[in-house]
Design a protein that fits this description.
The complex is a heterodimer of chains A (about 110) and B (about 120). Chain A has about 110 residues and is mainly β. Chain A is built from no helices and twelve strands. The chains are: A mainly beta (about 110), B mainly beta (about 120).
Chain lengths: ~110, ~120
């Protein structure tokens, strides 16, 4: 079946450090891929998405490229801020059905001044 | 952008009582809404998918008599936790699927934290 695997956290970085959160997936067909962010006590917010191979999603300095050959969608940011501290979820949707989102386990990021 | 609201944001209830959580799409019509449950420091678990005017489809292991879902209109879905017990304490999140461009996208509510005493 379809699944998403994320690197385990927590990830602890100093401000202005480079961030990579790995995400790989298993899916049939042509899934769409997402990164969601959850700040403490809040619901999920879509951070970025990519709907086909080689697409690059970007938002707020974050980027991720849909790599079909490696079935990956790694999240990167060149210089993190304290305000980026949150839990990041990688997710995919099937190519059909109700577009049910399948989430990875989430990776907690803590950025210190 | 598309906004989804949930009410209440927090609720504390006694064991044995029922609690209703509302999920509304404020500026778009949502034919499909999803209900998730999130345990502390864990990922979201899909509980059920509801389509306006029809019965919800529950995921395996989710008790449909325990978690009643009603999707009465294109902008409102409700989740009722019946005869709540402490193990039902969790963060419940809804999402609504809207077609804003050429793509169906899910928009998430802010979540409802349920505490059962």
């Amino acid at each position: 079946g379809n699944s998403v695997t994320q690197m385990e956290g927590p990830v602890t970085l100093s401000e202005e450090a480079f961030l990579t959160i790995n995400c790989t997936y298993t899916a049939t067909g042509y899934p769409s891929l997402f990164w969601y962010v959850q700040y403490p006590g809040e619901g999920l917010q879509l951070l970025l998405k990519a709907t086909k191979a080689d697409d690059k999603g970007s938002n707020k300095g974050f980027e991720a490229t849909y790599r079909k050959e490696t079935t990956s969608f790694h999240l990167e940011k060149g210089s993190v801020q304290v305000s980026d501290s949150a839990v990041y979820f990688c997710a995919l949707t099937n190519s059909g059905g109700y577009n049910k989102l399948i989430f990875g386990a989430g990776t907690r990021l803590a950025v210190h001044p | 952008g598309a906004v989804v609201s949930q009410h209440p944001s927090r609720v504390i209830c006694k064991s044995g009582t029922s609690v209703k959580i509302e999920c509304r799409s404020l500026d778009f019509q949502a034919t499909t809404m999803f209900w998730y449950r999130q345990f502390p420091k864990q990922s979201l678990m899909l509980m059920a998918t509801s389509n306006e005017g029809s019965k919800a489809t529950y995921e395996q292991g989710v008790e449909k008599d325990k978690f009643l879902i009603n999707h009465a209109s294109l902008t409102l879905s409700t989740l009722t936790v019946t005869s709540a017990h402490p193990e039902d304490s969790s963060f419940y999140i809804c999402s609504a699927e809207g077609r804003l461009a050429s793509y169906n996208e899910q928009f998430f509510g802010p979540g409802t934290r349920l505490t059962v005493l």
